[in-house]
Amino acid sequence: MTDISKNILQRIKQENVRPYPKCCFIFKRSIIWSFFSLSVLFGSIAAGMALFQLRYAEWDLYQHLRHSLLEFILLTIPCFWLVFMAGFTGFAYYYFRHTEQGYRYNTLWIVSGSVILSIIGGGLCSLTGAPERIETIFNDKVPFYKAMQEHKHKVWMSPEHGLLAGKINKVISEQKIQIEDLYGNNVLIDITHATWRGGLTPAENLKIKIICHRENKNLFVADEIRPWEGRRCQYKFR
Description:
The chain has 238 residues and is of the alpha/beta class. It has helices at 3-14, 22-55, 69-76, 79-97, 107-127, 130-141, 143-153, and strands spanning 163-171, 176-181, 186-190, 195-196, 207-216, 219-227. The chain has a 5-stranded mixed β-barrel with strand order 1-2-3-6-5. The relative contact order is 0.11.
């Protein structure tokens, strides 16, 4: 036996070193892979939300707005969910690094792989309709998220540029409705020749966005009426 082997055995005896059972290593690996999988799962949900919001981002409205292009992009892109996805990509990277073979791969490969998995998962998530339900839950239950989304929607409060948003509080006739805009003002809208998007029909308490022009001080004429948020055109706001 070599001197090195003797020294190692002597140290093991002196420090009373005991081997861990194999089940401990299996349990540890399982925990690491579970956290990695959860990180990818939550990253996929965030990616699905980002894809959902990008899909219904109204980029065609830039010409109607007084905002700069940069401000419009910041108002339109789903920053919250992209940051959320980036955070869980970081977790996925951390836990993959701690797998038995994780040290073999470089950082770029792991991060890229995590992002790709999240995007694929997000695409599959979008097919289930889950992002719409999650959006509704966050708007109802998370105050700061609701405030952030309302700030985004106020980009529509630009009547001098032909944009209005609010809740229908009265259906006067087939030709006219009255809305309460985002600032609490009652506004009369002529809908005679309006195009209703997303399967919308006039209904009280329905929140909408309107492309319009001013007819006179007290009346706007609607050219196009859109759902307040994506495909969720049938949701009524209390």
